[in-house]
Amino acid sequence: MKVIKNKALFLDRDGVINIDTGYLHKIEDFIFINGVFDFIKYFYNNDYLIFIVTNQSGIIRGYYTEQDFEILTDFMLNEFNKQNIKITKVYYCSCHEDFVENCTCRKPSPEMILQASQEFNINLSESLLVGDRESDIQSGKTAGVKFNYLLTDHFSFEDIINNFELFIKK
After folding, report:
1. Which residues have a catalytic role annotated?
2. How far apart are CA 30 and CA 157, in angstroms?
3. Domains of the chain
4. Given a cut of 70, is residue 57 above it in pLDDT?
5. What's the pTM value of the predicted model, to 2 decimals?
6. What is the strand order of the sheet 7-11 is part of?
């Protein structure tokens, strides 16, 4: 019996979902990036599981608590729910090499992606990752994610969808 694997969209949080203001932890400072809901809905409506994989070293640095992160995450997930988008799971790493030796979860490590892959039976060769830093892209490539996109001022959500559609139509 053949086991069907799921496709996934992996997203960094700060700089991809919301404007990166540096150690974001307050709801009133959370601003969604223009177009993010439509972008994620495109993949959600095409049967992709949606994951957020985010480094959150502000926790270990003492800028905010794990509870602050959870409150902000609940707010964000509720906003996605209002848009009829279900985020499958949020993975985060609160480590930083200045405070924790031998951390295995902080991007560019692929650990969070690999954990999601195992937990939710993900076919990484049919999945994609969107990040705003090279460490995000390195994480996706190392994990075996086939499509890795760096979101920049010159490469938008629409560009990613258009580029991705060209690949899947081949």
Report:
1. 12, 14
2. 19
3. 7-169 (3.40.50.1000)
4. yes
5. 0.95
6. 89-93, 48-55, 7-11, 128-131, 147-150
